[in-house]
Amino acid sequence: MAEGGPPPELDVHLLECPICLERLRQPKSLTCLHCFCQECLGTYITMELSGKMASATSFPCPVCRRMAQPANQTEPKDKWAEQFPTNAVIQDLIKLKEHSSEPLYCKPCQTRGDLTNPAKFWCKTMDVKFCEKCKATYHDVLHTECDVLDITGYDARRTKKEMSVPECDQHDEKLIWYCEDHKRLGCNICMIKYHRRCDEVTTAMEYLQKIKAGSQLEEMEMALKKGAQAMTSLVKGFDEQIQTMVQNQEIALQSIKDLRQSVEEQLNKLQKDVTDKLITLFKEEKGNLEASSRQCERLMNSMVNTMKSSVTAAEENDTIEAIVLYQRGQAEVESCKALVKEISKSFTSISINHRIVPRLVTLGDEAMGKIVIDRQRRCFPVDLEYLCVPLSERHVKEIGKFNVKTPSDKERCWISGVVFLPHEQIILSDYNNKKLKLFTDKGQYLDELTIRGNPSDLCLVNNNTVAIAVSNPGGVRVVRVEDSELSLSSEIIMPHDACCLGISRRDGRFIVGTRGGEVYSVTQDGATELLHKYNINCYCLTQYPLKGDTLVSVSNNATGDVAVSRLSADKRHTDVMKVDVVRGARGIDVDREGNIYVCGMESHNVVQMSGDGTHVRELLTSSEGMDSPRAIAVRGDTFLVTSCGSTNHNNFLRVFQLH
After folding, report:
1. pLDDT tens digit string along 235-248?
2. pLDDT tens digits along 143-199
3. Bond from prior residue into 8 cis (ω within 30 degrees of 0)
4. What is the model's pTM?
5. With contact defined as beta carbons under 8 Å apart, do 33 and 104 qualify?
6. How far is residue 262's CA from residue 264's CA, in Å, rounded to a whole number?
7. How far, rounded to the nearest angstrom, does the alpha carbon of residue 613 sit from its chain's CA centroid?
8. I need a surface site. Which of 70, 361, 530, 550 has the fewest CB within 10 A?
9. How far is it, in rounded angstroms, from Cα 117 to Cα 631?
10. How far is the C-alpha of 594 from the C-alpha of 50, rounded, in Å?
11. Strands 549-554 and 538-544
């Protein structure tokens, strides 16, 4: 620090380690300008790279995830932290911060009994304060090379404007230049030695005025604010998930205890096994959520602090700090976008439940029930959508195709409905062969069930139950899937033998579309209520999770007629898509971000559009082999498509992936 200047008043977070949240000890700076205790950084590197390839040469910053590399990558990883530069400025600031709260008394005078003689100088080398007389008599006689700071008239209310410009850590000259080509601050020697061939070299003050005039600082501050809001939303979501899981655990444990009472002496060991599994799964999933939450919280806190400090630095014309914070803010905004993109790939709701085996006959391995993890598609928060990858930037790749025709089929397949089950299984409805078919998501055949009538669209009731819209006779069939076997659970007969085509589920009721264009709400006992009547058949339905509305595919072919409609619980309907790109709409589904996927049976394509229908693009066309696509199911970045065109395509299910 230059002589004559007071210790600066800094935001507390600049002197704190983001890992341990304590005052920085041996502060080490990464290339992204985030600073950590040497010990904390060393522990983090060891844990982060534990179990990874021994040849790893870098690690992500604990705050912004930008990759950092040590100078000597061949050294043991527990020594990497020592290689990063020590932040001498932070060390001095910490010392001054500590001294700012101490009485400024002369140390030699105190040893002679004068306890309150004011000090006027502080020797940073000796870390001792002197009055003017003692400095001349004792200090200056033997210590001529010390760095002495004049602390006369120190006032804690003085601002950073009174500070001298910081010096270059290589040449001990003032940092007054900024190279825009390399985005580096430098002194006179730095500019002459390393940047004389650069095109854009200005004074630090000129560069600050440039980014202030061009609104770059303001835009960066706004981006930091939005990013911090996004992290806040994610942290809140993770906290809610943890609370839900805690409730699930309590309910499951109570269920285990209640069942145990009926077979007290015989089931002690089984209870212990199932309880241990529950707690292990709970800890594992909770740990994963907490790790993601901590990552978001670290970045959130850093972005909020950077935003506040940046505003203050700009207002006070603190050139160096404003530029450093501007660069750090840019890095944090990019890291925020990358983190949101990574989390969005696996954004699901997790529920850990205790499932009791019904009609217990023998005391087998599942006599105390079993612990299952249910993962449901979860829509990404609306305030994070601006950080996600736009629809136009996602590409489609076919990753699989398998035959769904079984030896007992008498007709060529006509797959009218398909859904993903939670346990890596797929269930299909075959209209022509009057069957439901169960496969693994890799195409391995598991089971089939003959259905009374012709099955069409499918929907999930829960993790091991599906409902099927059926015609001839019309109604709903409810089927359970247990241990890779299908069994009929119940049948609902529709009045007047209505021909049921599409089906979804909302608030404990089935929403059913019919051949005449009617859409009904149907209870478990068969009571119906007309919600709306369209002008033509409604072949497929699905729920739009962001608002709880029902999406209806309407098989119109005339340009301008409705192709996809949104039907709310209060019977209001809104046209989402008109017939244009899509004709003869059939299969429909929604991904975790609220994007809608529609099969155009007559237009031989599959389209993807935003939830409000304003952005539409074709994912697959006839040039990719789309021949009358009939049904679609979406899970994460993967989706399935079935066709009802030529015989070459009818018997196959195709698997695609967005990336």
Report:
1. 888 888 899 899 99
2. 877 777 777 655 433 433 334 456 676 777 888 889 988 888 888 888 888 888 898
3. no
4. 0.51
5. no
6. 6
7. 24
8. 361
9. 88
10. 37
11. antiparallel
